[in-house]
Amino acid sequence: MATRTTKLTTFAWLGDAFEPCGLLTLTEDGNTLVASEFAYGLRYLQRQNRIEVDPVSLGLTRLDRVEGNALFPANRLPFFGGIRDASPDSWGRRVIESKLRAPVNSLPESTYLLEAGGNRVGALDIRRDLHTPTHNGINPEIGLGYLMEAADRIEAGEEVPARLEAIFTEGTALGGARPKATIRNENGCLQLAKFRSRTDRFDMPKVEMAALRLAVECGLTVPPVGCVDVGGRSVMLIHRFDRYWSESATTPLPREWMLTQPGDGLLERRIPFISALTLVGCSEEESRLKSYMDIAQGVRTYIHPDMVALNLSELFGRMVFNIFVTNDDDHLRNHGFIYDDGLKGWRLSPLYDVMPRPGVAQERQLHLGVGQQGKLATLDNALSSCAAFGLSEAQAIARFAAIWSKVREWKVFFEEYGVAGADINAVESAFRHVRDIASPDLVEKIQAQP
């Protein structure tokens, strides 16, 4: 099959509107992306409020290397990470395929990019040309029941009838494998609705909600999250942390941006987002070969200096929490970074996509490497890498103790959050006792913490 070249216009949200950012050129062979290049627009580079699409491959710290030049992905990758993050992942692709009545994974990347729409994650939009309008399309009148029914049909490989076609707008821009859609709540804020699959062995939306709230108890940064019942099935609703409301387009990102709501004179702003897959500069296939230390190195290299120590400490805490709850879906796309316009730099995003995985094995692994013993999910292994996160052994052990003091009460918290007894029993084996994941000597040190 002959290759073809597709040129697409990239837009970036600056202040209160999308502005043309640059020209993306994709070389595709059927549904395989072979290569890509990008050129920033000269007028865009002259703007004081410009943002970089991707700090690794499309950074703007050296304009003399960018202006007027064709740029290519780092590490000989076929795609720019920052633009890949604006493209739909597994679920969003299934929605697009259903809309276009196409077989699974049969469409070229350019089609997925164009069909994702204007409510994709972050602050980018991809269109055919300068004159193509965006389509935001989130209809607050569409009920969760309709979206859930449409998601059920897509998951089952069935055709979506006309009355349920709102899913083709609300669900196309999203990543992850589980059924979901973007909605606006009663206050007008964007939320991600994650539905229960009919094949789930337990109430996964409610368990994920409870796990995220438990992470808050452990001192981690998490968006507001809750659950509602729709037709006897749980739907998890989590705040879209890549949006906030403010009066002025030049207002720096508020400290409590995830709590802002619509009001008189306030407009919705978009926050640039990239995944750790982009920050580390690798492909999806290489993700399993990477570690939390690789993310930490990316933090040191690309994150704003004022945030490095804080973000490294938070990242270490997330790794430890994942060990305690057996969240082994901790791949690089499930760690993110946002651009803080007040700092004029990148920082770690709030935590998302945490799902305890029940298991019977005593020895368990995370997706990413933890320490000197590779992916082994133990606190001793985490301790071996603490220096990569800027922590002393004493500080790391204190963090173990703080997180364990909350995780050990996980059943109490889950009951408070409304998780049913049967679901608590179903996920019980995911939660590790400190004695199961730490050597006797380390357990003694953890228990000695005040």
UniProtKB/TrEMBL annotation:
Q: Matching InterPro entries, A to Z? A: HipA-like_C, HipA_Ser/Thr_kinase
Which segments constitute the HipA-like C-terminal domain? 173-407
Per the record, its GO cellular-component terms are: cytosol
Known EC number: 2.7.11.1
Sorted alphabetically, which keywords does the UniProt record give?
Answer: Kinase, Transferase
Any single Pfam family the record assigns to this protein: HipA_C
**Record-level Gene Ontology MF annotations:** protein serine/threonine kinase activity
Tell me the protein family, please.
Belongs to the HipA Ser/Thr kinase family.
Protein name per UniProt: Serine/threonine-protein kinase HipA
Q: Write the lineage as a comma-separated list.
A: Bacteria, Pseudomonadati, Pseudomonadota, Betaproteobacteria, Neisseriales
